[in-house]
């Protein structure tokens, strides 16, 4: 039993972020252009994409949007024709920004509230891997006050402080049946916080190309007292003390980005971004339980993630004074090495495509919509710890909408 419990409790998904939990949905215009935004100036979402570019905005902004996300994954256990599907639940990543500065000033203040990490997955309680995961609801909400300063007509810099509020609610089955034959259940639920920063520089070259460079710091997020709730037969309750709490910390990774903006005509913007995500800082997953027993011990489990990168490209065509059309796409590598893939986010290298449309509905009011389709490459794995073996196939569908008022 002790070996089993160590396995169950070393796989909580809040502490197993991967490229799959980095949702990258911080601005509708930028999503429509393939998630590019580091090297161009579009709107208040520069608070996230490049704080250095914020001072170059010609207007002030208040905007908000949402990107409902449908994650559809299928697991085929090794040696069978069985297909286990996730339920059709919709996550709701959102973004909100405000940017203000006096007219023609050399500085702007901004604040952003956005969700760079998160996940909503429900495999049910009858599937092949129910002892690894039944359901997961995960959120990381960043709040970022920001200052940007224009040093010259061709260059500006900026930076902001980041506060993260994270929460997780996870359930999985335990192979300890009650008198009716129903398995037990483990539920891990809690919230925590972390701190970091986001900084960038933006400049215009003599060739007319714009360039942005940013660094978003690692955010060490700690759950100081999450609830560990176990439903087990009465005869075993002494081995699973209630109430009980756990403490754990995860380094949400730093991201380095460089982006370029090209302007082949008065109606066109073409953008290219390259991102390097420092997942290699995530080596070990550890849990410290407030109350231990002979069965329930603190755990330390290797993760050994690797750096991940993404290549993004997109374009905007201004059809007329009111209508803008956008499209883009990209490729992102996985941070999860073979043997560490789990059903919380069955991560793999992925490709994606995006479309977007912007329309000025009134003099100072814009509406922007986007749509994204992601396809994760099929990945056949046997997890080192759970020994869950089979193939994952995953697709993600993400519509989005936002409103922006500018003056």
UniProtKB/TrEMBL annotation:
Keywords, sorted A to Z: Cell outer membrane, Membrane, Signal, Transmembrane, Transmembrane beta strand
Record's bilayer topology term: Multi-pass membrane protein
GO cellular component terms, A-Z: cell outer membrane
The UniProt record lists the keyword Phosphoprotein: no
Signal peptide annotation: 1-18
Pfam families: Toluene_X (PF03349)
Cell location: Cell outer membrane
SUPFAM superfamilies: Porins (SSF56935)
Coiled coil: none
GO molecular function term, any single one: long-chain fatty acid transporting porin activity
Entry-linked InterPro entries: OMPP1/FadL/TodX
Main location: membrane
Sequence similarity: Belongs to the OmpP1/FadL family.
The protein's name: Long-chain fatty acid transport protein
Organism: Mucilaginibacter gossypiicola
């Amino acid at each position: 039993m002790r070996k089993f419990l160590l396995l169950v409790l070393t796989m909580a998904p809040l502490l197993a972020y991967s490229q799959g939990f980095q949702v990258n949905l911080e601005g509708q215009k930028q999503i429509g252009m393939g998630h590019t935004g580091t090297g161009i100036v579009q709107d208040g979402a520069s608070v996230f994409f490049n704080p250095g570019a914020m001072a170059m905005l010609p207007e002030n902004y208040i905007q908000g949007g949402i990107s409902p996300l449908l994650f559809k994954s299928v697991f085929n256990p090794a040696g069978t024709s069985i297909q286990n599907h996730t339920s059709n639940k919709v996550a709701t990543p959102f973004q909100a920004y405000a940017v203000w500065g006096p007219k023609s000033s050399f500085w702007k203040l901004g604040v952003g509230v956005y969700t760079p990490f998160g996940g909503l997955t429900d495999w049910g309680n009858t599937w092949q891997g129910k002892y690894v995961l039944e359901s997961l609801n995960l959120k990381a909400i960043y709040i970022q006050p920001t200052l940007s300063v224009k040093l010259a007509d061709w260059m500006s810099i900026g930076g902001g402080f980041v506060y993260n509020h994270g929460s997780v609610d996870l359930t999985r089955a335990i192979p300890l049946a009650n008198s009716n034959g129903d398995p037990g259940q483990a539920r891990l639920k809690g919230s925590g916080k972390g701190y970091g920063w986001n900084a960038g520089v933006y400049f215009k070259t003599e060739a007319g190309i714009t360039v942005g460079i940013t660094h978003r710091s690692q955010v060490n997020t700690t759950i100081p007292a999450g609830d560990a709730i176990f439903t087990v037969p009465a005869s075993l309750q002494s081995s699973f003390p209630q109430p009980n709490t756990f403490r754990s910390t995860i380094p949400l990774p730093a991201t380095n980005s460089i982006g370029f903006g090209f302007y082949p005509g008065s109606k066109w913007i073409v953008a290219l971004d390259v991102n390097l995500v420092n997942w290699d800082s995530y080596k070990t997953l550890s849990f410290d339980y407030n109350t231990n027993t002979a069965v329930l011990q603190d755990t330390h489990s290797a993760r050994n993630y690797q750096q991940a990168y993404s290549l993004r490209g997109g374009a905007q065509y201004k059809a007329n004074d009111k209508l803008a059309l956008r499209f883009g796409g990209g490729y992102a590598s996985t941070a999860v090495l073979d043997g560490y893939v789990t059903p919380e986010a069955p991560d793999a290298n992925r490709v994606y495509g995006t479309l977007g449309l912007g329309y000025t509905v009134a003099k100072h009011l814009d509406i922007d919509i986007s749509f994204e389709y992601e396809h994760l490459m099929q990945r056949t794995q046997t997890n080192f710890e759970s020994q869950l073996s089979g193939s994952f196939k995953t697709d993600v569908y993400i519509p989005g909408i936002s409103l922006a008022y500018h003056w």
